[in-house]
Write a structure and sequence with these properties.
There is one protein chain. With about 425 residues, this protein is an alpha+beta fold. It is built from 13 helices and 13 strands. The protein has 3 domains: about 170 residues, Alpha-Beta Plaits; about 60 residues, 5' to 3' exonuclease, C-terminal subdomain (DNA polymerase, domain 1); about 150 residues, DNA polymerase, Y-family, little finger domain (Dna Ligase, domain 1, 2-Layer Sandwich), CATH 3.30.1490. A 5-stranded mixed sheet has the order 5-6-1-7-8. Strand 7, helix 6 and strand 8 form a beta-alpha-beta unit. The chain binds a DNA duplex (18 and 18 nucleotides) through helix 8, helix 10, strand 9 and strand 12.
Length: about 425
DNA sequence: TCTGGGGTCCTAGGACCC
DNA sequence: TCTGGGGTCCTAGGACCC
């Protein structure tokens, strides 16, 4: 097999730059939810030494000194740009696996291109001219090697942006110049373990005894070893498998202490989970609720806890999931703590069509479903949360901070770019 | 005095990804 | 004052069953 990995460089930061020419050559950072920490930065911001994951408040001096442009994350915009990129990729290749919002694997088998490197160049140019976004492309026989080639293209072939390692000699060269911590699937813990045992480059790792890898790093890393040897061990999934869990959680804008206050975010997260379930035509068999204090505040008493509640019949009804989530909250809530975050997860998801009715089920599910559909349709028309459930108050206390939001250029007619023509 | 073995299910925690 | 959110997979250990 031959696989290409295409990803957008500094995706969120590049999106912001794309829509605002004044940002050209300026340092740009994009912040996480709640404007908490840096999750994307332009090359200029990287050069200033701003690291991924850095808390926003620690870079305020740098921001002032170098006029760094700061943005709250605008997922509506990034999502729509992502769709455009995927559409372009599908114009080249039939089998595209969308791996994340900013990257995709392409199956290059059976293409009539003689030179896959040139195909990469062509793809890159088309994405640039159609979306204005810069991408890097790595081409190799397995996903792990394509990842590695991609990283090489980004770091060492910046002007070209494409690297192909399709022959064994190119692969060997690539392995030699890649440190183990730059291998897809090797994180900080495994990096430490490998370094301590004398494995420093990917070439060292490839020659590690397989049994040692399996015992010390589980079968996951053993599969990785195969991938680097050119043997496919990570499945090709151009149709995404159904999700097993859905999680909705947020940190609060301010800390909450009372049970009454906590009910609001928990109910809202429960409602979001239910909506996501309905969107993909599935139901959950368990509801999991958690609340936690802020672990960074050493001076505060810490408490984090969770509970799983099994449901007698799998459901995607907002009212039911709110009911069980609140029941869970009542079980785990303890007064006297400053809570910083709450979340709801729906677990063991099954397809809506495959639900067995329980003998003990007394709920009128047909009625529930009709109500849910009416609410979903209304919200689709008027915008999310036009219709809410009683417990989801409009009190903003727990809501996000988003001080630096850019317009929804591509998805909201009131916010599209205006060009003055006179 | 001798105190099984095999299987499943569940949970918590750890590792990783973007 | 201010430290994201959403996932997956694997393993170990406990509970429980026969």
């Amino acid at each position: 097999m031959m696989i290409a990995l295409v990803d957008v460089n500094n995706f969120y930061a590049s999106c912001e730059k794309m829509f605002n020419p004044a940002l050209k050559n300026k340092p740009v950072v994009v912040l996480s939810n709640n404007d908490g920490c840096v999750i994307a930065r332009s090359d200029e911001a990287r050069t200033l030494g701003i690291k991924m994951g850095t808390p926003a408040f620690t870079i305020s001096q740098l921001v002032d000194d170098h006029n760094v442009q700061v943005f709250s994350s605008n997922y509506t915009l990034y999502g729509s740009m992502s769709n455009r990129v995927i559409t372009i990729l599908k114009s080249f290749v039939e089998s595209v696996e969308t791996y994340s919002i900013d990257e995709a694997f392409l199956n290059l088998d059976g293409l009539k291109y003689k030179d896959l490197f040139l195909l990469g160049i062509e793809i890159r140019e088309k994405i640039m001219s159609h979306t204005g976004l810069p991408v890097s492309i790595g081409i190799a026989p397995t996903k792990a090697l394509a990842k590695m080639a991609n990283r090489f293209a980004k770091k060492n072939r910046k002007e070209i942006g494409v690297h192909a390692a399709t022959e064994q000699q190119n692969i060997d060269a690539l392995l030699k110049v890649t440190d183990v911590n730059d291998i897809w699937g090797i994180g900080p813990q495994y990096q430490k373990l490998l370094h301590n045992n004398g494995f420093n480059t990917a070439a060292d790792f490839v020659n590690a005894p397989e049994e040692w890898v399996r015992v010390n790093m589980t079968v996951v890393a053993q599969r990785l070893l195969h991938e680097l040897k050119g043997i496919q061990a990570v499945k090709w999934e151009d149709v995404p498998p159904p999700r097993k869990n859905i999680c909705t959680s947020r940190s609060f804008g301010t800390q909450l202490t009372s049970y009454t206050e906590l009910k609001q975010p928990v109910a809202a997260h429960a409602a979001t989970c239910a909506r996501k379930l309905r969107q993909e035509g599935s139901c959950a068999t368990k509801v999991y609720v958690f609340i936690e204090t802020n672990p960074f505040r050493a001076e505060d008493k810490q408490y984090h806890t969770a509970v799983t509640i099994p449901l007698t019949v799998p459901t995607n009804s907002t009212m039911e999931i709110i009911k069980f989530a609140l029941r869970g909250l009542a079980m785990i809530y303890k007064p006297g703590y400053k809570y910083q975050k709450a979340g709801v997860m729906v677990l063991d998801i099954v397809s809506q069509t495959a639900i067995q009715l329980s003998l003990f089920d007394t709920r009128d599910r047909g009625k529930d479903q009709r109500l849910m559909k009416a609410i979903d349709d209304t919200n689709k028309y008027f915008g999310d949360n036009a219709v809410r459930y009683a417990v989801q108050s409009s009190d903003q206390k727990w809501h996000l901070r988003r001080m630096h939001l850019s317009p929804r250029y591509t998805t909201n007619i009131d916010e599209v770019m205006k060009v003055k023509a006179n």
